[in-house]
């Protein structure tokens, strides 16, 4: 018969051993979990770097700067390629880039600041601050609010970007806003979304009128400096550094250095200059890890509130204060792309997970957006298996081949023209008597060449909604401008050749 007391004693004596075993397992797990987490993070970073390098090669972007923040820390930051291809200077966290339309969130935040201070209301008619800015829809004057400008529901047409003047003048912002005078609205204010970059130039001018201070100075003092963005600038005229990347545009299937015109009147919509060090601070502010007396989290959250009164501008995506807000599958992302003639950027944040990604590039390309989205996908553990196609890159490739064909035809016609001229000089060809038949042929070819040239000049306005060749020269790949001049040159060579054939004949 078993002794109950002995059995109980044995059970008690085994308890400490079980507890010890449990404690040892817990300690081992607690030691292992950070190592596993680090290994997973390192694996994600390796995947991200492979992905970026692959996209970098495909995109032809000279230089990229990438930063990832998470839960108040900068967890990844690296440059790829060159800030300047000619000097082979590499991109670093200090390299400055124009950030394009991701500037809009800074301008919108300044508007919200001023509202919080009681200096304006978003429901105010813009004419309260700019009395002469009376815009009409179907011939009737309209009330356009500050809020509608901020959410791109003002009714101002997207093609108004074409008329933004190149200017370095101190009053360039006013000159830009004045281009809207006598321009009819494209839709009734508040009825629907239409992205028009000049909306934010109007907001910038409102900021000037309210604060009695230049827009660039206000943003520098009240937005950038308070959050520590000391190496960022509001426009090229503020720039006090030589570490800005050289800007490039695509042309003939490779990067082409290009100095774009200065659009000082477009700064509120697209011309803050910054680097990945400072942009990391901007992302931390948006995710709630930086707060100042002028920009508390209530203000930041207000800037993330989308306008749900209109249809989404993209799938499940509405516009907030300089941010697109995408809702889907129970997840929310804040995102915005930026493109200038020779720079591009993309910011994407997931507030619930406290993660943010920013990409800066010294070439105008949609690859910047694709890279930013891909980096976020990988960081969140999703596979990225798609191959991005940039429309400008595809257009440039097609035009490069067309230009090669035009060049070959031009060389042939030029050779034939020179040959006819030389034969005429050597008396191997002689002038024909001028008659009605030859006059008709000359007039027909003159008319044909004139029509070709006029169609060429008018093509952008007819096909692209009012775009001009001057705008195309700045914004499109270099091959597009080359096509314009090559067709003009080919038309002239063709005309000279036909003229010589009609006016001369072989001597007997």
UniProtKB/TrEMBL annotation:
<dbReference type="InterPro" id="IPR001466">
    <property type="entry name" value="Beta-lactam-related"/>
</dbReference>
<protein>
    <submittedName>
        <fullName>CubicO group peptidase (Beta-lactamase class C family)</fullName>
    </submittedName>
</protein>
<dbReference type="InterPro" id="IPR012338">
    <property type="entry name" value="Beta-lactam/transpept-like"/>
</dbReference>
<feature type="transmembrane region" description="Helical">
    <location>
        <begin position="398"/>
        <end position="418"/>
    </location>
</feature>
<keyword id="KW-1133">Transmembrane helix</keyword>
<dbReference type="InterPro" id="IPR050491">
    <property type="entry name" value="AmpC-like"/>
</dbReference>
<keyword id="KW-0472">Membrane</keyword>
<feature type="transmembrane region" description="Helical">
    <location>
        <begin position="439"/>
        <end position="457"/>
    </location>
</feature>
<keyword id="KW-0812">Transmembrane</keyword>
<dbReference type="Pfam" id="PF00144">
    <property type="entry name" value="Beta-lactamase"/>
</dbReference>
<feature type="domain" description="Beta-lactamase-related">
    <location>
        <begin position="49"/>
        <end position="365"/>
    </location>
</feature>
<feature type="transmembrane region" description="Helical">
    <location>
        <begin position="477"/>
        <end position="503"/>
    </location>
</feature>
